[in-house]
Amino acid sequence: MTTNLCPLKVRRRTDQKPERDEVTSGPGEDRRRNPDQFGLAPDQDFYIITIMPKKIDHDARRRDIARAAIAVIGEQGIDNTRLVDVARAAHATTGTITHYFEDKDAVLLAALDHVAQNILYMLRHGDEVDDLVDLAALILPVDEERLRDWRVWLSFFSRAIGDPALARINKAYYDEFRDGLAAIIRRRQSGRKLAASIEPDMTADAIISVLDGFCIRATLEREDWPPERQRKQLEAMLRPLLPAP
Question: Is residue 82 within 8 Å of 73, Cβ to Cβ?
């Protein structure tokens, strides 16, 4: 909340009867009132306090709710996730959740989109990482945050098997991943950092398949897949796909 102070001047008029007084609150305003009815003394300055509602960033609030849903799904699984759990994680009420999202499915899809957008953001800034294997390593489930993202992704992956609409959404994300990777490969070929013989689209799909394959195991068999083993496996599987010129 923000508070504004508006000056209010009370002045005793001398050109009229003593019982008539003037209260002025700004240029162009002349309202005759008896100051006693306001409890105001003549010849004094007063302030009207106006309280302005706090501005809310609704997009940021939706992102907060999506992140809360990710945390709950990562901990409890998608089938055990309830709106009340998401509200608690977001430090909000269920009414706040339903104000921004139509129902539970909409909240869950927002969580999936948040995970996908993180990957797409990484791909859009892929040229900032010199080595493509290093870029791919950024999404390995080597810490709690990325492990949680993979749990969310896998939860929706399994759901898409029996849900045609979700399967289409899943495919659209994978198409964007492939296109983003293929564009990076083409730029690196133009810059003579990768061999011209590499087929960008096919190689991008291969990289995605490699990541999906062993990241599923690393997510489900966490103790058997420490970060060092994940990185070593990634090198072994991706490096042959990305020869230098």
Answer: no
